[in-house]
C-alpha cells in the first residue's frame, strides 16, 4: 500500500508492541505444545452463560475488546495476528466425512472431515472477530467457535444469520488468550444452512404448493427488505420447482422464481448469479406476457453484466431486451452508456469533466471503463511481472486508466485499518483490513472475478492443490490469506478525496491492472485519482517497449525509503538513484538527512512573500549545503530529491522591495 502521510501514521506504544509480540509468541508456543492432544470436555451451562454475558457486554460497549491495542496519543486500534497461512477447504460437503466434537484434536486442521453444529448462545461481536458457543446435533458437546475478520456477509454477521452451520475441515486451535476454539479464517469453510431440508417430491400438486409457498415467502421477505431471507426462500423454491415431477408439469414456476432471485442477486451484488438466474428464467415464448417477462430478465442480466464491466455481454442483453420491448427507455439509456464505456476501453478517451462532476461523497465511484491499450504485461527482470509501453507516448499523454476493482473510502462503514502482526517475519504493519474484507466479499459474491485478483503477486501462493480452485459444489472458495498478502503488496492509498481521512480509516483501493506496475525512485508516470479511476500519464516521453514505473514511496531519505520498501513490498530498490545514494555512504546520507530536515522546517516556518535578505541567504546556504552532499559526476542526470523543497521555496520567494 502506498505510504500514508506522517499525520496519518499510527505509532504503537513500545509496551503495546511488546505486549502484542509476546501474546502472539506465547500462543504459538502453547499451540505447538498442545498440537494433536485430545480436546477437553466443556461444561455447556457455564460456556453458554459466559457467551451470553459477553455478548450483552459487547452490545452495550462495556466489555474491553482483547483485540484493541493502545496507540500513542490516539484511540485504540484493532490488532490482528496474521498466523501461518493455510489453504481453504476445496472439497465439496458430500465428499467430507462427518466427525464428532470428541474427535477434535488441539491445533489441528481436520482435513477430509466436516462438523455439523448448532449455535447455542448469542454471538459476541468484536471489532475484528465474532464468537459464539456451538453444540453438536444431540446437544451433548459444547465448543467455542470464532470467525475472524471476514465475518460479515451482506451486512449481516454470518454467525448471527442462522443457527445451523457445517464447518468444512474444522481447525481447532487456541485464542490469543489461550482458550480452545474452533476457528474459521476462510468464510468458504463455513456452510450456512438456512431453511428446511428439501426431500424428493413425488406428487406434482404438492410440489407446486410447496414451491409456491417458498416463492411467496421470498416475495414477503423482499417487501420487508430482508434480502438474505428472500434469497434463501427463493433458493428453496427453485430446488423444489426444478425437481422432475414439477419441472415437467409446470416449468414456468422455476422460471418465475429464477427471475425473482435474479433481482435479489442484483441487489446483493451477486452479479454472476444474477446473470445465470436471469438466463434460466427466459421462456422464449411469443405471447405478450412471456415477452414482457423475458424483457425484464434481459434487463436484469444486462445490468449485472454492466456492473461486472462486461460491456459486450451487457450490450447483447439490452439489445435482446429492445427486440422484445422496442423503445424501452432504460435499455436505450444503458446502450448509450455502454457505447461510452466501450469507447473508453478501446481509445482511452474519457469525458473528464463529466466524470468529475458526477462524483460526490454519496457517489464516490466513477462510471468508467479501464483503458490499457498503450501497455502490456511482460516479465520484468528480477521484479516478476511489469507493465511496458506498446508505443511511443509523448510527455503528459494518457498511458492507462484503471477503474478500481475495489475501493473503500474513509467515510464508509467498511473502512477499517488495523495493526497486523505477521508471525512469518515478526513485523507489525498498518494494514487496511477493511479493504481486504470488501475484496473477499466481492469475490465470494462473484467467483468469475477470483482469477483477476488471485493472479496478482503475493507471498502466500496457496498449495499446489488449492491454487486455481474457485469453487466447490457448496459455492465459491476464497483463500483469505492470499487476498491479505495480495492486498499488502498491491493496494494503493487513494487520498482524502471526500474529506478527512485518519490513521484508522485511510481510503485505499486495489487496481488489478495497475497492480502490475513496478517501483522506481525515478518514476516515468504521474498519477492522479478521479474518484476510483486511477489515471496515469507519462511524466516524460516514453519510448516503445520501455517499462513503466511508479514511485511507491517518495521519501527523499534513502534509508527511510528502503526500509518502507522492504517492510511493505518486500524488496530492496536498486534503481540508479538508490545505487548513487547507497554509494554515498552512511555519513554523507546522515549529513544530508539533517540538512533536509532543517530545510523542511525552514520551508514550513518562513513565508516566501516579502522574505528578508537574511532569510533568503539562509535558504541559499541550506540549498548549497544539501547540493554539496551530492557528488557531481555520480548524480549527473539523477534527481536530487533532498533539494526539491528548498529549491522550490527559493524559486517562488519574493524578496522585500
Ligand atoms: C504492485 S506489485 C508489482 C507487480 C509485480 N512485479 C508482479 O509480478 O505482479 C509489487 C511487487 O513487485 C515487486 N517489485 C516492484 N518493484 C520492484 C523493484 N523495483 N525491484 C524489485 N521488486 C519490485 C515486489 O515484489 C513488490 O512487492
Shape: globular
Rg calculated over all Cα atoms? 29 Å
Ligand list? S-adenosylmethionine
The largest sheet is: 10 strands, mixed
Mean pLDDT comes to: 92
- Figure out the total of helices: 20
Protein name: SET domain-containing protein
Keywords: TPR repeat
Organism: Lophiostoma macrostomum CBS 122681
InterPro entries: Gramillin-biosynth_MTr (IPR053209), SET_dom (IPR001214), SET_dom_sf (IPR046341), TPR-like_helical_dom_sf (IPR011990), TPR_rpt (IPR019734)
Detailed description of the structure:
It is a single chain. The protein has about 650 residues and is of the alpha+beta class. It contains 20 helices and 30 strands. Helix 7 (about 250-265) runs antiparallel to helix 8 (about 270-280) and helix 13 packs across helix 15 (about 480-490). The longest helix has 21 residues, at about 15-35. The model is unreliable at about 1-10 (pLDDT under 50). It binds S-adenosylmethionine. S-adenosylmethionine binds near residues 384, 386 and 520.
